[in-house]
Amino acid sequence: MGKNKSSGGGKGDKGNAKGDEKDTGLKKEGVEIKVRHILCEKHSKKEEALAQLRAGVKWDEVALKYSEHKATDGGDLGWKAWGSLLSEFQNAAFELEPSSMASPIIGEAKTNQGYHIIMVQDRRKASKRK
């Protein structure tokens, strides 16, 4: 369960150490992710929440106790396409493999809203809406 620390980025994948095969498996454009997050204003609170998750406490319980955003929904943000999230959050989220709330693969991001603990539940081709 590694940490994903993103610092801006941009649209290119320059310097991605994960390799070409991994890049194609986690394509960003034309893909939507079902994403959840736990938002903490303070770094210390985020660290407490991470410790709880790593100790095996259920995602929903940690979100309810620590998150300052949509905690009652377990931090569910729903399906999000590339370009619909804050860039730091988006960069971290789109690098994550889907996982379950019982055994989440965790990413992290710092935005102007605070510290985010991120997990992706699913990934699909983006739907075309007009």
Automatic annotation (TrEMBL):
One of its GO terms (molecular function) is DNA binding. GO terms for biological process: rRNA processing. It catalyses: [protein]-peptidylproline (omega=180) = [protein]-peptidylproline (omega=0). Residues 11-27 have a biased composition (Basic and acidic residues). It is an enzyme of class 5 (isomerase). Its EC number is 5.2.1.8. Residues 30-122 form the PpiC domain. Keywords: Isomerase, Rotamase. SUPFAM superfamilies: FKBP-like. Residues 1-27 are annotated as: Disordered. PANTHER family: PTHR45995. Belongs to the PpiC/parvulin rotamase family. PIN4 subfamily. This is Peptidyl-prolyl cis-trans isomerase.
